[in-house]
Amino acid sequence: MAVVEPILSTDEAAGEVFVGRGAETQEVLSVLDPGQDTTGMVVASSVAGLAGIGKTALARSCAAEAVGRGWYRGGAVFVDLNGYAPNPADQVMPEHVFAPMLHVLGFPGRLDTSAAGQAAQYHQLLVERAATGRPVLLVLDNASSTAQIADLMPRSRAHRALITSRHTLATRGARTLELGTLSPAAACALVEEQLAFLSPGEARIRHDLEGTERLCRMCGHLPLALHIATALLARDPNQTPGALADELARARSKLDVLDDGERAVRAAFELSYRRLTPGQARLFRLFPLNPGPHIATDAAARLIDLDDDQTVRLIRGLARAHVVERAGAGVWRQHDLMRAYAIELLGRRGDDQGAASNRLIEHYIAMAHDVMETVHTGTSATFRTVDDVLTWCDREHPNLQATISMAATFDDSDAALRIQEALVAVHAHRHHTAAWESAARSAERFARETNDHAGTCRALHQVMLALESAGREEEAMQAATTLLRFQHGLIEAALQTEKPIDCQRLLQHAVAAVAESERLLGVRERQLVQTRREHIALVARTRRLDDTFQQIGPRPPRPPATASTGRPRTAQPKAATNEQTQSAHEEAAAWARRALERLPTASLRDADFDPYAAHAQKAARRALAMIPEGLEPEESEPWRDVCDLLARYAAKRLAVGATSRTLGQLAQVIWTGRTLPHVVSAYDIAVQAHERIGDPTAQASLLTDLARESFASGDYGQAIRSHGRAATIVEAIGDKVRHGEALSDIAHAHLLLKNHGEAAEFAARAAPLLTSTNRLGAAGRALTTLANANYGLDRPHEALSAALSAEAHAISADDLHGRAAALLVLGLARRDTGDADGASRSWRHALRIARRVQDGYLRQATETFLKSVGYLPT
């Protein structure tokens, strides 16, 4: 049975606090005034809005005011239709209302027993009262569908109906008022007046105005929440508004606090949520995953993973239910407390938050890409003009910033960078230099966190341009230097990429950055600019890219002109202060010392291109030229110090090779591709010098040092040439040990070059020499090379014989490393000669040795090899 109440005037009704709805009250009263023009449709006012927004309070207040003004002599009634009852059977339908409505309106006759008869009597009563000039006001509160109100609506335009609903109902002839939250001032006034009503004489609000404002903000200026918060204050006279605001801020959920035992915000929201369709409910729960204050329709579509049209229909349903609200054209938001409720549901229902968040981030990344494309080209698939981009960015800026923060929180710095770069582009387009610089520095941080060299390069470039645009010239030049120095890492990354296209893309970034840095720096960092250009060209040659990058190699450096540079210009050395010409020996020693002293020691990372290295080489050649050829033994000794200086000069150049291996792949490529050939020339000078004084042992030692460094640097061809020259020298002097070692090293280098025939030839010559001189470990390694070469030549039986001998030699020499290597190739030979069990035993034994010795490289190399041949030990 429905409860229908007569509406009393404001003076007669029980006191109730109602504030802050002046404009809305006037709008409703303008519709309720029977004196207004009522031609046309039946006039009704429909008040819709969020649960707890104060719809019922507004309806009651306006109805009481209308009755007090004497507008409704035919009667005014209020009925709660209970449209959001948890059980649909508890909703009040028209057939439940006719009888009590007729009773309250004073129907003079006997009520019909059927619902249809009562409906007829109800409408007949309204017609009669309209005819006699006695209008009726119907307040139909808390309706959830038009089915609850359609049959109750009066058919005469003399009457008025005031309907409240959490949904925007499509009611014929209705004028809808969408009710929003209170203004901050009205919210504070409501709390103050309500607390004074509940606790007369209260002064807490006046004494804590700042706390009251915070409390109202924490309640989202929602009347229901404000009433509950005020009731909580009234129950605890010692609690201040600020303390309650702090409690709300600390609470895991504000909805836990906003419950006074009789009313609860959560319960009010629950009634609205239950009326949603499954699709609407899912979108409602996912809404809070958008980190910003509002969300556009296309972003919501990505969130729920539906097309835009389907999403629009769902959102419109949510808006009609007032669980989301429009924040602009195609833009939506949730009330803070409704958002808190949605988050609760999201946690309970087990929705896939990760997938939805990722889709949303990907959406903003895609939009950011189109923003940048439009800014740079004038149009894109999404935006027709740059003005469209700027409008979109102004609207979406809070969402973009919040998404960047969310991505960074989830350790997705790459996503944060992609979106941040769009903001950089927009600030740059507008020449907002402060925001431009700040955004670029943030982009740099994200790029460095993901080791994105290209992104870091772009960000550093934008920092430089922002500073330059702001007129901060010195800071801009410092930024240009930072950008230029960073190119070392970018070029090294280009060298290490697997795909040529990726290498080319990174080098293009480097080319642009070097050019921009040079534009700003001029001659300030000329040498470093030249170094970077050379590195780019060197990597391009190494990776066999097109000739575009070859043309940006180093520009010829200017030779030092004066001593003011820190080093004197190259000139004829004057060792004496008098006019007498020194002896040839003294002059040669002076040139050799000059070569050693002038050799640069700068890091390969930043300044390896140094013209003084060339001057040092020239000085060394001058020293060599002064050593006479065909010296007799007794004539050679005075020249030994010159030869020693030239050997030290060559060794100093060679030492950079070991340093390069600690500086990354780019430094190694620079060393092998550019520096090592000059070092070979330096060693050639030193070897020739010792040849002139008749010291073959020193010659062989120099060549061996050069060969081993060349091998370590990966230049196996140079290693073979140097070892070959050394082998010829030591063979001539009868040094079998060094001859055998040189041949073994030559064989190993040929093996790595897959020259299996040459490897087998040199290893076969080396092994007996080393065995005969009792160098069993070295002999075993030569035999291992021979075994590998034979295996590469598809001669498994010869490989087996050599591998067995290699293992035997390694056992005799107690050479565990050598034995492990021999066992690996022995396993291959046994496998290919049909002895699978023997192969397995060999490999298992090799693995045990590799794990026993304290050598991480041997263990890793052994395990990698075994996996490559399909042997997977435990």
Give a structural overview.
The chain has 37 helices and 9 strands. A 6-stranded mixed beta sheet has the order 1-3-4-5-2-6, sandwiched between helices. Strands 7-9-8 form a 3-stranded antiparallel beta sheet. The longest helix has 28 residues, at 665-692.
Number of helices: 37
Number of strands: 9
Summarize the main sheet.
6 strands, mixed
Overall pLDDT metric: 83
Strand content: under 5%
Low-confidence stretches: 553-582, 602-609
Broad structural category: mainly alpha
Distance between the termini: 79 Å
What kind of assembly state do the chains in view correspond to? single chain
Strands of the largest sheet, in order across it?
1-3-4-5-2-6
**CA-atom Rg in angstroms:** 45 Å
Gross morphology: elongated
Helix coverage percent: 55-70%
